[in-house]
Amino acid sequence: MDNYIINIDSSLSEESKTNSLISTDFNYRLPQALNNVTNLKMSSIELPNTSYLISKLKDNFYFKIYINDTEHTISLNEGNYLPIDLHKIIEDKLKNIDPDLEFELVPYQYVFKIYHSKETLFKLDFTHNSDYSSLGSILGFKENNYQDSHLYLAEKVVYVIDNNYCFLYMNNYGHVHHNNKRYLSKIIMSSQKYEMVFDGRLKYVSKNVIFKTPVTLELLHIRLEDPLGNLLNLNSTPFSFTLEISMIENQLLKRYKEISFYNQELMDLILNDVMLTHYNKEVKTVKLGETYNKILKDNMVNHIYSEGGRSVSSQVEMINNTKGGISYSEMDGVEVQVSGIDGPVTKVVSDENLSGSEISIENYDNVSLKEVEEADLRNKKNKTKKKLKKLIKKFKKKYPEKYEDLKKDKKKLIKTVCVIVKKNKKKSVKSKIVY
User: If DSSP codes are grouped into helix, strand and coil, which group holds residue 306?
Assistant: First the structure.
């Protein structure tokens, strides 16, 4: 297994080189195509918390007030504000409209109230055109419209916290699902505004992707998105992150990883179950490891008598649904009778093509690995004999005269047939090589 570690910086993307502004939506082309990638992991990220809570893009920088049948608009500059900042700025703007308008931040409660000191009626309109929180919602007002009163008290506390988290999208890889989208990672915005968010190995929110089969990586499409699924605007400040990519160099390991029913989690569970079974011998009051024993019994039968074996899901389903005996009659004519999953195997019978491979075991738990391998070897030899018989029949049909000359010397006949087979294989071997 070979590891490839790469740093991805948004300021070095093609989009940033052609545009004056640094985007959070860009393509990154790897220096070279990486083949047979089995998993990738984001090991660190450096993200500036520079997005704006109040902005024109979110359409939440203003609200309207109607007094004495006159409409007035209170607007704020784009940026991030503390409650005390909002109090001072909005109060000054209201005073310019009417000196008797008051805007207060209730002490110790962090709620705003707007009122007219001479009890003149007025209306408030916080309506806006986006899915983001309106300026009224930020100030703590639940409704979009208020009227027929001279005093309005916010129902909620003032909320000047921007995004608590954002998402890193990359080629639709990952296990984080949000709003019908898939992301590589969810990033917690743990730093204050205008500070850097550092996220490393100890702050994991699903940053590891294990591919079911090896893939090729060449072009990465990267986006930073807010909780609404829109592009996160960092106001042209760059961000970077580190990717750790694992690739297979060994061809045998590659084929092993390509097995469709391979599951690392199941392998880990089996290993843990074996260890628990071992410790169970010392602690007799606790029964552990029974599931593993059931899977082992079924897998051992498949290992000996089936070329492809059964999928893990079908094996588990068989174990869960079995109360009595089992019969495998579909495996190349081989029938295996088991008296009970939890009990001993009483009989294993093979057909005539597997002569000499009959096994009679009184207690399955006492079967050694060597016995399993010997039975498997006998099975393979019988299959080889079948193939050889077929090849000799073909040779006899195609070269009858040569067959008559060689049939008395079996060793020479078999050697000649094998040489012909090897020559035929060499013609197509180049197209079958796996790179």
Answer: coil
- Average pLDDT in the 361-366 region? 44
Cβ partners under 8 Å of residue 257, min gap 6: 38, 213, 214, 248
Name the percent of the chain lying above pLDDT 70: 68
pLDDT higher at 292 or 245: 245
Domains and CATH numbers, the chain: 2-51+163-257 (2.60.120.1100), 62-153 (no CATH), 264-367 (no CATH), 386-432 (no CATH)
3-state helix, strand, coil in the chain (%, to 5): 35, 30, 35
pLDDT in tens, 254-281: 555 555 555 667 677 777 777 777 666 6
- Rounded distance between C-alpha atoms, residue 41 and residue 195, angstroms: 25
Retrieve residue 86's tokens: 């909002």
Report the DSSP pairing between strands 176-178 and 25-48.
unpaired
pLDDT of residue 296: 53
Q: Which of 239, 223, 221 is nearest to 46 (CA)?
A: 239
Residue 176 has pLDDT above 60, yes or no: yes
pTM here? 0.57
Measuring CA to CA, which residue among 52, 145, 36, 152 is closest to residue 94? Answer: 152
Measured between alpha carbons, how far is 95 from 75 in angstroms, rounded to an integer? Answer: 14
**412 is written with which tokens?**
């020479």
Could you read off the pLDDT of 107-163 as tens digits, one per residue? 889 999 999 999 999 999 999 999 999 999 999 999 999 999 999 999 999 999 898
Residues 280, 289 contacting (CB under 8 angstroms): yes
Nearest to 224 by CA among 10, 426, 405: 10
Neighbours of 354 (CB within 10 A): 20
Residues forming a β-bridge with 246 = 3, 39
- CA of 288: how far to CAs of 128, 172, 241, 283, in Å? 61, 40, 44, 10
